[in-house]
Amino acid sequence: MSSGTLEGIGTVLAFLAMILIFAWAFSKNRKRDFDEAANLPFADELPENEEGKK
C-alpha cells in the first residue's frame, strides 16, 4: 500500500471517530448526566450518602 492510501485510511478513521464522539456527546441518553454535571457548581451541600465520608 502506498503512503497516500494509508493517509486516506487514517483520515477516514479520524472522521469516523469524530462522528462517534459527537453522537455520544449529543445523544439523549447522556442528557441527564450532563445536566447533573452542569449543576455541580451550584450545589450547596453534599448528598446524604457522602456526608459521613468526610
UniProtKB/TrEMBL annotation:
Q: Which InterPro entries match?
A: Cbb3-typ_cyt_oxidase_comp
How is this protein named in the record?
Cytochrome c oxidase cbb3-type subunit 4
- Superkingdom of this entry's organism? Bacteria
State the species of origin.
Umboniibacter marinipuniceus
Q: Which UniProt keywords apply?
A: Membrane, Transmembrane, Transmembrane helix
- Residue spans crossing the bilayer: 6-26
Under Pfam families, the record lists: FixQ
